[in-house]
Structures are given as structure tokens and as C-alpha cells.
Amino acid sequence: MSSGSTDPGGTPRHPGWSLWDAVAEVDPADPGDTPFAFGGDLSPATLVGAYRRGVFPWPLDEPAGGPTTAANAPGPRDPAATGTRPPVLSRDAQELSRDARGRADIAWWSPDPRGVLPIGGVRVPESLFKRMRACDWTTTLDQAFADVVHNCGQGTRRTWITTELAGAYQELHRLGWAHSIEVWQDDELIGGMFGVLVGAVFMAESMFHVRTDASKVALVDFDARFAPVGGRLVDVQFVTAHAKSMGAVEIPRVRFLTVLRQVRDAEVRLDRGRLPVTRLAELARQARKARHAQKAQQVQKAEQAE
Fold first, then answer.
1. For a Cys-Cys bond, which of 5, 156, 263, 280 suits 200, CB 3.0-4.6 Å?
2. What is the mean pLDDT of the chain?
């Protein structure tokens, strides 16, 4: 394992013209529980174009032209577990369509409402706080991206991270769009998270752990790195019970897209250095203290108003 670098990296390289350039932005009237579009490919330009519009791929294995049923429509995603998205079947089509005619193996989604984690809003339960305070783990950024993606694609359930998709995300990483957080015990990778950074919004895609709480540590650590450099939101797409326990909330899609459009061209430089997890316990303690003080002020104001 590399010891990491404090070099925050440069601006992501623009991949060029995208199929999305010919597709209108998501409209508030567009349904939020069915695909926004079908087709296209998994090239860097197509993926970046989608993420910049608040759209993400969810491959289907329904035959071309077939219906989108509950079996292959997206359900709640647990970012701390391997996903259940069906595999990509092909990349033959080179057009995007607003219906499934002739192509339905890659669907593009923009759910409404949208699951997000407000920056600075990650919750740290007592058990996680105690682990962070006592452990000897460390974290890095972008030191083992391929390994994180590979581990996220493992598990007993079929995963949506196929070899093809893993390669697509690795290309986005090479261009500076996709990032990983690694959690280490000495030189062993024990947890991590990866996603796509669009300006000041991080689109979290998947997490894994081989030690209890290591994936949660990855999320807490990313929040601690993201907030000081201008981060606005972590997109988790859907709010599951696990995501809710970590502070995720649902917001209207129009609100999410408004924030995304405001900050998708922002320049955010993340610290890649190797840092101790124990620092996260102190940050969590300070955050708790601030929340308690704020709550006390609110109670005092309410009492004075009576």
C-alpha cells in the first residue's frame, strides 16, 4: 500500500462530446420511478454527461423492447453492501432514446425523491465512535481505486459491478472523475467506497468492508475531507435503512438538480494523504457538542417565546 500523497490532484479532464449533449436536461415533470432514458454506452463521455445531469446507469437484463418491471427497476440501494443491479448485456447501441424501443439493456435513472447526505451531516453512532477512537486504522484517497471497485463487486449476491462497468469506472478514475476512499489496517485494505465527483457533489456508487464498520469509516472520512474544501452533497440515490442511520435524507429531485447545476463546475481538490481514523472520533465529538449547543439554544428560544 502506498503511503499516499498530500497532492490534491488537478482538474478532471473533459472526455469530449457526449451523447447527452443531444438530450434535454431532466425536467421536473419527468417521472422519477421509471428510466429517464435508454441506450447509449459506458464511455467516459457518456458517463460524465449523465452524472453532470444527475442521471446514473442502472443496466437491465430485460430483452430489447421489453417492459421495465419491478424485477429490474431500481429499488433501495444500501451503499454499505454489494448491489443487486443486473449486468450489462452489450454496448452495441450508440444512441439515447426516451423509450425502450430497440434497446433496453442500459437504462438511465434520475429518481424522485433523491437520497442525499448533506455535508457535515453524517451520523456517528456510539459503537462507531468507540471503534474510531480506539482503532489503529488509517485512510487514504485514490491509492487503491481498482482494488476498492473489485471488492465492491464481490459478495454472495449478483452484483451490478460487472467487469465492463468496473473498467468504465477505472477509466473515469484515470481521467480524474472517479475517486476512492480506502480504509487500512496496517497494509491490509479492510474497507472502502468509490464514486464520481461532479464539482461539489459526490455520487457515491458502492462500499465494502471486511472488518466491522470499515465501510462506515470510509463514509465518515470522506465527509471529513469533502466538507472543508467546499463539498455540498453526497448523493446516495435512494435512502435505505442503513443510509438513513448514517444521516441520509430524501429531498425533491428538483432541489437536488438545482444544487447540482449550481456546483457541477466547481473546482474541489481533495486531500489524498494517509490519515489516522482516530481523528474522526474527535471531529465527531466536536460535531455532537455543536449540535447539543444548537438544540439548547432552540429550546431556550422556544421557552422565551411562550
1. 263
2. 81
